[in-house]
Amino acid sequence: MSLNRLRNQNIIKVLATMNYRIKAALLGGDLRQSSAARFLSDSGLECAVWGLDTRSELGGAVRCDDWLSALNEASAIILPLPASFDGVRVNCPLAPECRLKLSALLDVGDAPILGGRLPDFFRKAADEKGRKIYDYYDSEELKIKNALPTAEGAVCIAMRELECTVNGCRAAVLGYGRVGSATAGLLRSMGAAVTVAARSKSELARAQICGMRPMHINPDKPLLGMVSLTHGYDLIINTIPARLLSGDILHQISPETVIIDLASVPGGVDFDAANKLGLNAIWALSLPGKYAPVTSGVIIGETVLSYLESEGIIGE
C-alpha cells in the first residue's frame, strides 16, 4: 500500500471519529471536478457541488441549485483546473449557463479557496482581503502524480499518428524530469528504442541505467546536440519549455516523423515553421484532463486532502 493511500485512509478514520462533518464546496469544472467530488465524498467529507451538468456522476456529493447554497457552512471552497478560462469567471464548461465571478467568492465567508492555475489578479485580491488561497496546480505532489496520465496521453496520441507500432519505433524524448522520465519509461516498456536528450548529466545517467540512449544537450550550444535528432526518428516528444525545436532543426526533420510537444507555454516547438514545412507537430497540453479525467480528479482530491490536513482543517 502506498504511503499516500495509507495517509488518506488515516484521514478518513479521523473524519469518522469527529462529532461534526467537514464540508467542501466544489464549484464549476469538468469531469475531473466530478471525480474529485466523488473521491472527497467517499473520503468522508460532506461535498456540495455547483456548476456541473446534471449528467455528472457525483456519488455522495449533493448538487446545489445556486453557488451560495453550496458555500453555506463550507470549510473549504474548491475550484476546478483551470479555475478560470477568461481570468474573470469560474470555469464551468459543462454548465455554461452557470456564471460566477471569481471576485464574488472573496466577499462570502472566510473559508480557504483552492483552485488550479489561479489568476494573478485573484491571488492579489485575496491577499488584500486576507483570504487564504492555495493553487493546487503548484503542488509537487500533484505534478508527480500527473506525470503518468500525461505520459499515457502522449503515447495515445503517438499511437494514433504513427504509421508503425510503438514497439520497435525509434523515439526521442527531450527532457527527463517528471513527465519526461514517465514518458520515456512508458515508451521503453512498450518496446520502443528510446533516446533521452537532456542538459543534466545526472538525468542522462538515470536514463542510461534504465536502458535508454543518452544524448547531451549543451546549454551554451543546444543546436549541436539537437542536430542528431533530425535523422532516423519516428517519434520526437518534447517536455522542455524552451524553443529547442527551432526552424533550423525542423527543416532537417523528415515529414514522416511525429512531433509531440508536452511543454507548457512557450512550448519547445516553432509551430509556425513546422506548419510551413508540412510537419506533423502537435502541441498536446492538459492531457490528464483529456485522457484520464477520473484519475486526474482523484489526484486533485488527494492533493486537496493533503492541504486540508496540513492546514489543520482536518485535525487529529
Structural commentary:
- The protein is an alpha/beta fold.
- It is 40% helix and 15% strand.
- The chain is built from 13 helices and 12 strands.
- The chain has helices at 3-17, 31-42, 67-71, 102-105, 120-128, 140-161, 178-189, 201-209, 222-226, 247-250, 271-277, 287-291, 293-310; strands at residues 23-27, 46-50, 62-63, 76-78, 113-115, 133-135, 170-174, 193-198, 213-216, 235-238, 258-261, 280-283.
- α10 links the parallel β10 (235-238) and β11 (258-261).
- α2 packs across α13 and α6 runs antiparallel to α13.
- The longest helix has 22 residues, at 140-161.
Give the gist of this structure.
The chain has helices spanning 3-17, 31-42, 67-71, 102-105, 120-128, 140-161, 178-189, 201-209, 222-226, 247-250, 271-277, 287-291, 293-310; strands at 23-27, 46-50, 62-63, 76-78, 113-115, 133-135, 170-174, 193-198, 213-216, 235-238, 258-261, 280-283. It is α/β, with parallel strands linked by helices.
Largest sheet: 6 strands, parallel
β-strand number: 12
Poorly predicted tracts of residues = 10-20
What class would the helix/strand composition place it in? alpha/beta
What is the average of the pLDDT values?
A: 91
Key words describing this protein structure:
single chain, 316 residues, alpha/beta, 12 strands, 40% helix
SSE map:
Elements: H1 3-17, E1 23-27, H2 31-42, E2 46-50, E3 62-63, H3 67-71, E4 76-78, H4 102-105, E5 113-115, H5 120-128, E6 133-135, H6 140-161, E7 170-174, H7 178-189, E8 193-198, H8 201-209, E9 213-216, H9 222-226, E10 235-238, H10 247-250, E11 258-261, H11 271-277, E12 280-283, H12 287-291, H13 293-310
Parallel strand pairs: 1-2, 1-4, 2-3, 4-5, 5-6, 7-8, 7-10, 8-9, 10-11, 11-12
